[in-house]
Design a protein that fits this description.
This protein is mainly alpha-helical and about 240 residues long. The protein contains 13 helices and no strands.
């Protein structure tokens, strides 16, 4: 335990003094915009519980608009300490943004957390569907101008804007596959009808994963996935339809 009143340390001091932060000091470090990144990570790793909504917000505020190591540390820590009872619209937005973080480790950790909470699945599903539909509208417009989403026109060309949209769509589809519920079955089906035809096989794979989880999915879409040229797409529906 540190007895002095200093609440901000640089990484060198932390290593040399072998400091230990109290719970209150950890929260102070999370709220301190000038806090050294190493110190923030050290604080996050040593956080053992969240006791209030304010503390939860403090942790979530480091999940976005911070360097990658900090965001990743928060995402992994949330798998350990997140509590559904500390939730508001601000936290909801942070969840939705972090699902498509540029770092796949963050995306994966957040999706893992969502998969463990029926509360989060219910809270996030409608907005995930909305954001997927917005992405699809943007993608359709871009496809008219450049191609590449539904054909091979851009296959040999690097296109950052295209790849960014595909990345976001991939992770929102992964989150959607976790959040599928009967109330959204028809809305999800309309999404899959579009995404199962994408040129990028990873989008088709996530689409087939969703399709296999739907109640009474259309046989024509199951067949479409079954006869996909990519093994990973086929594998998602192999036990959902006769392979004759």
């Amino acid at each position: 335990m540190v007895n002095d009143k200093k609440t901000s340390y640089n990484s060198k001091e932390l290593l040399e003094l072998n400091l230990e932060f109290s719970h209150d000091e950890i929260i102070q470090n999370l709220n301190n915009s000038c806090c050294d990144d190493f110190v923030k990570i050290f604080s996050i790793v040593n956080l053992d519980k969240l006791y209030s909504l304010d503390e939860t917000v403090s942790l979530f505020n480091n999940l976005t608009n911070h360097p990658t190591p900090v965001r990743e540390a928060v995402a992994f820590k949330l798998e350990e300490v997140y509590d559904d009872k500390f939730f508001n619209s601000e936290i909801k937005e942070q969840f939705l943004r972090s699902i498509i973080d540029i770092n796949p480790n963050v995306c994966r950790a957040i999706c893992n957390l969502i998969s463990k909470s029926e509360f989060l699945q219910n809270e996030l599903s409608d907005e995930i569907i909305k954001r997927i539909n917005e992405l699809l509208s943007e993608i359709k417009q871009n496809d008219k101008e450049l191609g590449g989403f539904f054909d091979d026109a851009l296959k040999i060309r690097k296109n950052h804007a295209k790849n960014k949209k595909l990345f976001s769509l991939y992770w929102y589809l992964e989150a959607l596959s976790i959040c599928i519920g009967r109330k959204t079955n028809s809305l999800v089906l309309e999404i899959v009808k579009q995404t199962i035809k994408f040129n990028d096989y990873t989008i088709r794979e996530k689409s087939a994963k969703i399709l296999a989880k739907l109640d009474n999915p259309p046989i024509e879409l199951l067949n479409f996935a079954k006869f996909d040229q990519n093994f990973y797409v086929k594998n998602q529906v192999y036990d959902k339809i006769s392979m004759k």
